């Protein structure tokens, strides 16, 4: 039974941080009873960004912490891979087997045969990133973390030169808030907190731009439902109208942009009629939006991660952030464009991640192409040897990675050893050789930073974990000891030691941060709004980016170089059709946005989440349903060159004709044939610096025979 060790005493409120893969990184107040168990979880009212509001998923976290299906013992596979046969094993024996498997792989094929694989199941710096220290110490294969942020980050930084922007709390001071490419109600609830405050206190208009009528769009004063991957066309038309109607701030651009004259000439043929044909919006909708933002100086463009899910996402993000520069919105409090604040945090992570041990000659493998890597694709393997051993922490690639059939085929290889450190028996854990039970966030110390805000926050250990589970840091240090590298810098330190060593810039240690709870790192107005110049060497915003030479937060190493069809990227902001466009054989485009009560593949184990979501369904416009003889609730089959799956149809006007929407990453066994939606998604890299275009898929659709 999963019962935390009691910490007998009085009940109290503990302060922590939501660890999950979300830009909000909410500050939390957590009830802790006299029995040492957590109770209600609330957003911290003292934190100026969280502002007392959190999502329903995290508010019920006690249900997850004490879930009867939580992993509590190390397990060794018995029988065939994926057959579900397991036996208990001690921690000592489990770690010995993992270390021995790594040694065998290294002896047979070299150090690059081992691939530590992780992502953002926890956003805690220590528990997430310590795996890289082991990687670099042992010269294991590198990890190019492309799957989530790369495309959007790249497009934003191509314009601004820095992954920073206006204080996101300034949304509350805007006269118009444009939420573009994010379903904030479902995925970043605090965006709505500040946007709604602007509406209530200032009469601000709320504009939402997305591809279907999601919960955020339903709260909008102006809702623009465009075709997937066509955002740049809308942005270009808005800038065209701004130049045409006198709303472009020519004086601002003369001082702060590289080539406004060239941009205006380029946009001469990118008017609203042109954009309407591409986006599916009406000319009137485009004109009304352009007029609203053109006449509203304090317009805050909140640009989301929807951009990063399309093959032209970097170009679309660059075009969208260019709108704020044409209008001069950056000059005003409550104005400008914001995507992520990752560039403001000055954490020293060299020791934590073992960066001084990094060997640039070791290959880097693309996490998004795990299916190709594990099935021997020579390009994905960088024309080197096979991966024969893996340690996986904080991610579930058998569910969330594209090209799912290749991923499963790779995991089923008899010569591949896989250890998974997890909290639940995920689709990936089911395919492992060794499964290790992991702590949850209130059971260990860690440090967090908010991509969507401006705080560094401490998440201290609040309750004792079950005696049979272990932290990620413990696993890394114990493997380092067995593999002969524990003497190297960074190993053997506690979480609190690591936290202190990341904070030298702030002249604070872990104890000081525990007292203060968080550090507000927001730069001053002039810095945040680029009032003294943008982040490029000449201080100018780039309307004409160098798509293959500009530094970016997650640019692939020189050994990989630019990725995807980068030669096709435009000189100025523009719509380019490098998307997976519909064709005669695949007349529909499929997008796979998040479900409200799931977070990637987390929370899918919760009964109340599944009851809220119902079942895996595909949203189909009534016109498309009628043309294909499909009624609501019918079983339909979707397919493309990667595979096919069956789902139930949800006939709804919330999507556009020709566009199919499947919300959420469900466990594979929740689907009719035991395969998830990522059977249909591709892993071809996005230009120019990589990424996974998970919302950019062409498919065919047909009704299944009764």
Automatic annotation (TrEMBL):
Identify which cofactors the protein needs according to its UniProt entry: Mo-bis(molybdopterin guanine dinucleotide)
A single MF term (Gene Ontology): iron-sulfur cluster binding
Query: What Pfam families does the entry give?
Result: Molybdop_Fe4S4, Molybdopterin, Molydop_binding
Q: Which SMART domains match?
A: Molybdop_Fe4S4
Signal peptide stretch = none
Enumerate the InterPro entries for this protein: Asp_de-COase-like_dom_sf (IPR009010), MoPterin_dinucl-bd_dom (IPR006657), Mopterin_OxRdtase (IPR006656), Mopterin_OxRdtase_4Fe-4S_dom (IPR006963), Mopterin_OxRdtase_prok_CS (IPR006655), Prok_Mopterin_Oxidored (IPR050612), YoaE_C (IPR037920)
Q: Which UniProt keywords apply?
A: Iron, Iron-sulfur, Metal-binding, Molybdenum, Oxidoreductase
Looking at the record, the residues that make up the 4Fe-4S Mo/W bis-MGD-type domain are 11-69
This protein's source sits in the domain of life called Bacteria
**Record-stated family:** Belongs to the prokaryotic molybdopterin-containing oxidoreductase family.
What is this protein's record name?
Answer: Anaerobic selenocysteine-containing dehydrogenase
Species: Rhizobium subbaraonis
Lineage of source species: Bacteria, Pseudomonadati, Pseudomonadota, Alphaproteobacteria, Hyphomicrobiales
């Amino acid at each position: 039974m999963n019962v935390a060790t009691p910490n007998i005493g009085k009940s109290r409120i503990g302060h922590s941080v939501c660890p999950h893969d979300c830009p909000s990184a909410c500050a939390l107040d957590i009830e802790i009873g006299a029995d040492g168990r957590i109770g209600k979880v609330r957003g911290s009212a003292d934190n100026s960004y969280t502002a007392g509001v959190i999502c329903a998923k995290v508010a019920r976290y006690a249900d997850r912490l004490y879930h009867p299906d939580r992993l509590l013992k190390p397990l060794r596979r018995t029988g065939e891979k994926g057959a579900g046969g397991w036996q208990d094993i001690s921690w000592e024996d489990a770690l010995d087997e993992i270390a021995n498997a790594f040694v065998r792989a290294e002896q047979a094929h070299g150090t690059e045969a081992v691939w530590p694989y992780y992502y953002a199941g926890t956003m805690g710096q220590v528990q997430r990133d310590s795996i890289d220290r082991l990687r670099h110490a042992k010269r294991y294969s590198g990890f190019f973390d492309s799957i989530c942020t790369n495309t959007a980050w790249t497009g934003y930084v191509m314009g601004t030169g820095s992954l920073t922007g206006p204080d996101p709390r300034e949304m509350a001071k805007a006269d118009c808030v444009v939420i573009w490419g994010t379903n904030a109600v479902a995925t970043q609830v605090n965006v709505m907190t500040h946007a709604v405050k602007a509406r209530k206190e200032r009469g601000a208009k709320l504009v939402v731009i997305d591809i279907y009528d999601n919960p955020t769009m339903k709260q909008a004063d102006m809702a623009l439902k465009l075709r997937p991957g066509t955002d740049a066309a809308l942005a270009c038309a808005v800038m065209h109208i701004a130049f045409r109607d006198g709303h472009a701030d020519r004086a601002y651009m003369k001082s702060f942009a590289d080539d406004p004259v060239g941009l205006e000439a380029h946009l001469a043929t990118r008017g609203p009629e042109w954009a309407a044909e591409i986006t599916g919006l009406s000319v009137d909708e485009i004109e009304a939006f352009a007029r609203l933002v053109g006449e509203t100086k304090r317009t805050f463009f909140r640009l989301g991660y929807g951009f990063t899910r399309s093959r032209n996402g970097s170009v679309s993000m660059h075009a969208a952030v260019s709108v704020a520069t044409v209008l001069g919105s950056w000059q005003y409090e409550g104005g400008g464009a914001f995507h992520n604040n990752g560039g403001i945090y000055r954490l020293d992570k060299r020791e934590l991640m073992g960066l001084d041990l990094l060997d640039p000659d070791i290959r880097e493998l693309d996490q998004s192409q795990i299916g190709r890597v594990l099935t021997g694709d020579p390009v994905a393997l960088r024309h080197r040897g096979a991966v024969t051993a893996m340690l996986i922490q904080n991610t579930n690639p058998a569910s969330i990675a594209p090209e799912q059939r290749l991923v499963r085929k790779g995991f089923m290889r008899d010569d591949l050893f896989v250890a998974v450190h997890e909290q639940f028996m995920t689709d990936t854990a089911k395919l492992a050789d060794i499964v290790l039970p992991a702590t949850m966030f209130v059971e260990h110390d860690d440090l967090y930073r908010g991509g969507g805000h401006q705080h560094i926050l401490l998440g201290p250990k609040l309750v004792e974990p079950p005696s049979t589970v272990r932290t990620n840091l413990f696993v890394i240090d114990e493997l380092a000891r067995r593999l002969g590298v524990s003497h190297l810098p960074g190993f053997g330190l506690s979480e609190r030691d690591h936290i202190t060593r990341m904070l030298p810039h702030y002249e604070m240690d872990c104890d000081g941060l525990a007292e203060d709870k968080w550090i507000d790192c927001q730069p001053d107005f002039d810095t945040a709004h680029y009032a003294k110049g943008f982040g490029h060497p000449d201080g100018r915003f780039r309307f004409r980016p160098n798509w293959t030479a500009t530094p970016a937060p997650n640019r692939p190493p020189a050994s990989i170089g630019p990725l995807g069809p980068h030669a096709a990227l435009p000189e100025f902001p523009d719509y380019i059709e490098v998307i997976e466009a519909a064709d005669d054989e695949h007349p529909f485009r499929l997008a796979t946005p998040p479900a409200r009560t799931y977070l990637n593949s987390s929370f899918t184990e919760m009964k109340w989440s599944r009851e809220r979501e119902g079942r895996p369904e595909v949203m189909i416009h009534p016109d498309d349903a009628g043309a294909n003889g499909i009624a609501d609730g019918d079983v339909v089959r979707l397919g493309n060159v990667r595979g096919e799956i069956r789902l139930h149809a949800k006939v709804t006007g919330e999507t556009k004709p020709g566009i199919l929407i499947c919300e959420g990453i469900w466990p594979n066994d929740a689907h009719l044939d035991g395969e998830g939606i990522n059977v249909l998604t591709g892993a071809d890299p996005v230009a120019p610096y990589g990424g996974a275009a998970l919302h950019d898929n062409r498919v065919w659709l047909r009704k299944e025979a009764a």
